[in-house]
Prior knowledge:
This protein is α/β, with parallel strands linked by helices. The protein folds into three domains: 21-122, Conserved hypothetical protein from pyrococcus furiosus pfu- 392566-001, ParB domain (Alpha-Beta Complex), CATH 3.90.1530.30; 165-215, Arc Repressor Mutant, subunit A (Orthogonal Bundle); 222-278, no CATH class. It has helices at residues 45-58, 81-89, 105-118, 124-138, 142-149, 153-160, 167-174, 180-186, 191-204, 208-214, 217-245, 267-278, and strands at residues 25-28, 32-33, 64-68, 75-79, 94-100, 249-253, 258-262. Strand 3 (64-68) and strand 4 (75-79) form a beta hairpin. The protein starts with 24 loop residues before the first strand and ends with a helix.
Amino acid sequence: MKKNPLGKGLESLIPKAESTRTIINEIDIADIKPNPEQPRKVFDEEALSELTDSIRRNGVIQPLVLAAGEEEGEYIIIAGERRWRAAGLAGLRRVPAVVRVLTHETEKLELALIENIQREDLGPLELARAYKNLMDTHDYRQEDVADVVGKSRSAVANTIRLLGLPEKVIMALEEGLISEGHARALIGLDEKKAVEILFKIIDNSLSVRDVEKLVSKKEREQIMHKEEDENIFVMSLKAEMEEFFRTKIEIKPGKKGGTINIRYSSDDDLDRIIKTIRGE
């Protein structure tokens, strides 16, 4: 399992009010940039307006957590993007911040993800995309993500499954027309059936329990058995390929087909893998 470089998590990077050893700097707002891997993409305008009013009256109480950017004198937000946005709207030119040295790009995403989870700021789809980003971009397994965010592997897996829903269902969830519970009840259904039930939810204000009744017990059992069979097959195939190629293999099933990624650590390793494929 990938070792968590964060140690005790976000609390170890955000200064406590009574700390006397942490140096808090005043940083120009113009020199601060949002974290491109910030999992939170949508900021509630009403909540942001309230925070702006509070900062206008009281200033920024909790310092931002920043990391050095690519350009000299530039900083990337690790924690506190809402405060940064609100401070700008309040007319502040500088904000209090703690600058941390992060040795891995992955830490920026981990910290941003943990901060939002602890504050319960992320929507279900934002959370799912953040998990998937850690897995796709930073070579994490579901177990690694679960370890970082302090959740069970099954909770992480169930959240990621939301991304496999039909586009119309995803849009309805993003727009708040249905709840996460509604969306979960539709996971695994074929697109036609899922969209059909989606319209019934919206038109008739159905509860999650109502939706679960619409999705028959037999359908739910078929979905579960199918996923279990597919997971067993994929895991077995993955183990067989890793033994054959002597490297890490990543199999990503999709709605139509999928992808197989073969990892290599150096040019020599790549040459070895190619020779293995050729049977040399």
